[in-house]
Here is the input.
Amino acid sequence: MNILALESSCDDTCAAVLGADGQLRSNVISSQEVHDRFGGVVPEIASRQHLELANLIVARALSEAEVTLEQIDLVAATQGPGLVGALLVGLSTAKALAAGRELPFAPVDHLQGHVAANFLRTAEPSVQSSPPGPRDRGARQAFEPPFLCLIASGGHTLLVHVREHEGYEVVGRTLDDAAGEAFDKGARMLGLGYPGGAALERLATAGDPEAFSFPGSRSERSRGGRGRSREAFARSLDFSFAGLKTALLYRLRELSEDEARARRADLAASYQAAIVDSLIARAEHALQRTGIARLAVGGGVAANGELRRRLGALDAEVHVPPAVLCTDNAAMIASAARFTRSLPYPEYLALDAYATGERPRASQPPAVAGPKAKHPLESRR
Ligand code: KG4
Ligand code: ZN
Here is the structure.
């Protein structure tokens, strides 16, 4: 079955084709740079850009995959969460493409997509494990459930238990900012552009990660954390990044302008280390607590080299998709669509987008316009 998928939840206009053999045939991503000058994504501009790009990106995804629309059997798109205006462009385009040929349509949850990036067979080595040995798997392999998955993006930071290809159970989540948001806000304070994660990582390569001690870092944690008992800190599977951002602000205030400029790389490296330490500590703890020795990752922050290096050193079977499948893309949406209940034509025509982490139960029909179902996993917490 050939699947055509669209993703437009934020500022990337994406389309991909997944072949009948489960092999990725194309993965086209157009990142909107127009937002840089505003220091963040402007929702209305994002929607308009998606509108201009959607058809072009779909045409390119089809031509790169060397298939025509007539050879597509299923169309999929991100239904939510994300910016509603942006989502609606991709969702409506995809529904129209499906309806035009009376094809079935699969509405996909964006976070489920980040998990499903791990189900793709890829051309580059994507698996690391430590210690290296028989558990190492070659390139092109998909990572099959059950496993724990760390999802770290600009809007979400979650640790989830993936028991099967569809759905997951949340075992830890951020109590305030997402990890990507922490990267972006830190980058902004250090005078880097938006989104700042990758830029902060580049700056950090020239710095000393131990030059400054930030909340969440190993050095801070070994001291027991500020105002928190060491035990309570160690027990939690939840994340918190808001204090880190404030700590960077205070460090910057303590330094003179010249000092701050001279120590930017050290600040970036120490700040990045604190975010990565915090993600690794929780992931490690979740592996121990659940006894599941398999970990996957997803979300833009999983493109971070330092995080990838530290994940590779964990004593577990770790699956790290190529960076291009960690940041937003439509290949992951196509991958999730393989395991999502699709709707026959014309049942999906009234399907609406959703902005927050709410999504329909796996066993129930997806949300159509109207009151939204509460996220099934929210209710368990
Ligand atoms: O998954 P994603 O592409 O979009 C959302 O669903 O949010 O994640 C975007 C986030 C941004 O906050 C961005 O700064 C961060 O991922 N990011 C990185 C890196 N590349 C992207 N953070 C740290 N290091 C990177 N190399
Ligand atoms: Zn994302």
Q: What stands out?
A: The longest helix spans residues 264-290.
